[in-house]
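#struct-help
A.M.: can someone run this one for me? Single chain, 345 residues.
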Amino acid sequence: MKFTANEIAEQVGGEAVGDGNIELAGFAQADVAKPGDLTFAENEKYFRLAEESQASAILAPEEFASETKTVIRVKNARIAFARVLPMLFPEKEFPPSIHPTAIIADSANVADTAYIGPNCVIGESAAIGDQSVLEANCTVGDQSVLGQSVRLFANVTIYSQCRIGDRVRIHAGTVIGSDGYGYVFDQDHHRKIPQVGGVVIENDVEIGANCTVDRGALGDTLIGEGTKIDNLVQIAHNVVIGKHCIIVAQNGIGGSAQIGEYSMLGGQVGIRGHTTIGPKAMIAAKSTVLNNLEGGKQYMGFPAIPNFQAKRQLIAAQQLPELIKRVRELEKQLANKDKPAADDA
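D.P.: on it. Structure tokens below:
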């Protein structure tokens, strides 16, 4: 699909400076771009590389200009970049249909505009909304509800009694609604506590590949509107995640933890169960949250503490070898000072 520089500029609220009628059919990094490609630069260094490239046009902030290239100038180049890519690389479209190998319960309600792929299984009283897509080998359990324009990539499993909002995207291998990890020690063995709650995923959430979201023990596990979850994340039973959070790969969030809206969790963060993180908190990668944290602050470390405090501790730890050496020297000096004077010959 081709667009002129003027058409792209109009779509991203920018201005094409130079040949606005030049046609663009791809988007590439400057070092591999070819004629007909649009490339991207948001600082002086990368803009100069883009000018030297084979690209036909550059997407860049408003202050940049070129004598040799068409420049699509925008207020925020990164936001414009995110808007342009779907134009030049549209996702595969799935025509409304049900594959003959799909198994759908008689009591299920599948919208006429939905696509149900090969080997999908849809349980009793489940509902699939308009324009939703289930790629191959997906399962939707009994009484689960998917809203409009939901996309399940291959091999996604939705257990029973889960509610998925509109425009939710769930990537391959993810499991929604598996049993929470609940046991009680009874005499000589661990007795399983039945997990009878559900999972609620609100509108515009995206969940990466191979994640697990456990169902609640009694109430629901909740993922708030607009939250984006990376790959390989474990969310335990009765967790509540607020709106528009960012959760990076390999997080482990313990049962009944609460994460405030607009919070950001770096990679491999661990959160103890029954802890509360306030809104707009930022947790650095590999941190471990053992206690409640206030919102609007940055944290890091094990256990997670305010980042300025953690950095001071890190600096102090780096100075320990030299400090130990100095202490030993002082000890030697004190020991020598305390020795009785040698007798005169």
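A.M.: thanks! The longest strand covers residues 57-61.
D.P.: also worth noting: Residues 162 and 322 are 57 Å apart (CA to CA).
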